[in-house]
């Protein structure tokens, strides 16, 4: 029989017991996983080093310490009571403590895995401690089977909803050893390079040294965040058992955000497929709301969404009846698979054919709208009632909201409810800053808070559809787990893409980043936010800190509203301060951040005393309805609101002047100041102490469309790089931002530094890719004649580079082809898009100039992957083409010189040609992109590249800074004698 307040061991079913000082024994201080001392000792003896629930390491225990405890000797560890006191003293949320109460301990301490239990029992028999197995079996035999099944289900429902799997030691340990060895080899290599200058080509040598040091620093920044990668597993069945009982769903509501701007560039049919996949997701319909942001105020988007709402009445019940995947019709019907597999319903074939006909008719209607919208009437668009479309001027129009589907609106063809679908176009007026996508997303945050106020938000680009209908449930396995989700700001899913050729010439899939870097970051403080396919905790978007955040220094509690709280506390001395309220405002963050603790326990007077209405209005804006919604941690529309006025209030919060003199875009919502607002927003959340989670289900959660031709891909990379440069030049640069609180882990800071400094690698990369051609043209080299010991350092360096790559492939599962494509495009993007991003970023900062690199499209084939061979002229193509021409000319010149100089020149030529071919091989996909399918390079590219290469060669011959004076005098004498 369990003593009052003492949980039962999850393994053996016995009481966890007490520590020598009389307190309850705690095995894991992270999640309070119930495990007795005997079972913990057996786990340590068997080699287990981490908690089976949360993955935290048992660093505070050893077998010796547990033996000492059994003898009555204190091992100096924290007990459960002291752990709770420390947690409460740091400002822990009172609701979180309920998970370890006596009532809940009964629910979470049912016997676990049978195999593990038998192992423990056999061990106990050998130790002659407890022999109750037979009696327990007889007792279970007396229980009816139905009751046993119910108890088994309740025990499974109490299990954790997810599990963390650190990489096996036989994979990660060699990887860490090689990283350390590579650091040592790099140090020895640079010692040799610095102490052995090349006097005959000192300028070339110095340039190469600077470039190599920068590459080494970049590698360190990229490598250390991968120090402890992890994998995760979710248990969706346990989520259903816990939150879906007796036909009543207690799953948390989710608001979906879909953003679009120009329907002529972002086809409405693709946006419609994204919306349909959301409406048909495997989640309770009353828990889903889809908000579509039309930042271009296009009537085409509005009408296409109306057609989508009508078609969803047929599509949604069809998807749920037959459990099809994916639930975006365009991609479902285009699958080249046996669609009858696992479909046993006789009516499936007939209904599928009928649905395909309906979808083809839907496509015809949407495409007709697109064709009609190609030419805008002189008087502007007119709606069906004869009134002018309010958004005819996309830069000057009022806010517009239209609820197409809802809980009280139209039903599907089977009479069932449909999820809510809302069209939103925020107000635009001249003279106001609208902040592009980040501003549109913040408008959706406020609108959704007024209308539905779901505690979680999932944002998708208009070309990313839901590929796994259970993706939301995957995220809820983390968010709704009381032990895991209390300090999680977002769940990031990897990006996967359709329509990319098999070879993935330009690394569009970005496999190395999503399967290596992001998995590595998940083992630290969490992955960075990549802009789409992400489930947010709404409270984190409001600028709040996590509930489990440690107490702040006293110096950070000097704000006015905190003083008000102190006064209020003095009037209520009986209440525990840590349970009442915590100040999460930080001077170094310039934020109005509030950690609202137990706010529902206070009446209106106490609430008004605790929180100044004025301080909230300064942060969130002048909307009392929205401010009240921010206090509801579990979501839902406040009871005090009038449903008839919600739309009017929603229109108010998307007005163009609403964000003026507030914290929106500074500390609240999506952060302004960069075209890559995603990186900046995630960075701010991690600085506040939140952590994120990387979820990689077996079936990809979302899929999107990628720009597969060369020019579009380079412009995409240019936009990302420009955003990183903007962050680097702003106050949010990770090099100096957010040091005061110490809430950002150092490896995570290195990861963020790597994401904002990588465009600057383009400068040394351009120089380094030019060095082989210069060496071949001048006969000089950046490396002196190698001694035996120097040859060893070079050999060890190459071996360490190869070993790091091989071991990285081993633990990540990435193919060597993907790694090579990533390496190639790192060079291609570095010498083109990244270089222009640095140039444009400094121009924008210093002169306020916003340079645009225009794209001109040329015709492509209509065959499959025809867009791959579509050529679009852009200035970004000039630098890499010039490097190709110069290195090819250098190779020809080098071989010509070797033929004239005799066999002695062939040895030094090998090293020079090796580096030249290194450049050419990395730029080979770029060369194929220039040639296209017809193997023809546009004349303009050839002319520009030959012109630059010729000018460069002539200048080099005229002024060679690496030739000695004597050589120059001899050359001048020879020229004079020839002239004579």
Automatic annotation (TrEMBL):
Segments traversing the membrane: 172-190, 202-221, 756-777, 789-807, 827-849, 870-893, 905-927, 939-959
In Pfam terms, one family for this protein is Cellulose_synt
The record ties this protein, via Gene3D superfamilies, to: Spore Coat Polysaccharide Biosynthesis Protein SpsA, Chain A, Zinc/RING finger domain, C3HC4 (zinc finger)
* InterPro entries, per the entry: Cellulose_synth, CES_Znf_RING, Nucleotide-diphossugar_trans, Znf_RING/FYVE/PHD
Keyword field? Cell membrane, Cell wall biogenesis/degradation, Cellulose biosynthesis, Glycosyltransferase, Manganese, Membrane, Metal-binding, Transferase, Transmembrane, Transmembrane helix, Zinc, Zinc-finger
Q: Where is this region: Disordered?
A: 126-160
Subcellular location, record wording:
Cell membrane
A molecular function (GO) term: cellulose synthase (UDP-forming) activity
EC numbers, comma separated? 2.4.1.12
What sort of enzyme, by top EC class, is this? transferase
Q: In which pathway does it act?
A: Glycan metabolism; plant cellulose biosynthesis
Active-site positions on this chain: 295, 678
Task: Tell me the first and last residues of the signal peptide.
Answer: none
Identify its membrane topology class: Multi-pass membrane protein
Quote the record's binding site residues for Mn(2+).
437, 461
What does it catalyze? [(1->4)-beta-D-glucosyl](n) + UDP-alpha-D-glucose = [(1->4)-beta-D-glucosyl](n+1) + UDP + H(+)
Cite the Cellulose synthase RING-type zinc finger domain residue spans from the record. 7-66
- Where UDP-alpha-D-glucose binds, per the record, is at 259, 265-266, 295, 436
The cofactor(s) it depends on are: Zn(2+); Mn(2+)
**What does the cofactor field's note say?**
Binds 2 Zn(2+) ions per subunit.
GO cellular component terms, alphabetically, are: plasma membrane
GO BP terms: namely:
cell wall organization; cellulose biosynthetic process
Q: Which PANTHER family match?
A: X-BOX TRANSCRIPTION FACTOR-RELATED (PTHR13301)
Family from the record: Belongs to the glycosyltransferase 2 family. Plant cellulose synthase subfamily.
Its recorded name reads Cellulose synthase
Give the organism, scientific name: Aristolochia fimbriata (White veined hardy Dutchman's pipe vine)
